[in-house]
């Protein structure tokens, strides 16, 4: 189990770096403080809500309940990411490059 947690933890740094970089890039400069505040608050609040919901699901459905919810949410996140990439490829530009007028465009390969 500790090895699995360590391996899963290796995904946290790239995720956090990407999340903060995208937030900075997509947010107008005058709203950056608010966006970062919401971003910083969202992680702990989401974790707390997820743990509370998992506890309720374990009590009512056993261990299978929260595991199935985690699987469904991961699948939905994958579909969302794939649809964003597909939309970007169709337009020939990344969503983040089109977010700000005058932003440098990153060509898709």
Automatic annotation (TrEMBL):
Query: Which UniProt keywords are listed?
Result: Membrane, Transmembrane, Transmembrane helix
Could you list the residue ranges that cross the membrane? 6-22, 34-54, 66-85
Top-level lineage group:
Bacteria
Alphabetized InterPro entries for the sequence: MFS_trans_sf
Which protein are we looking at? Answer: MFS transporter
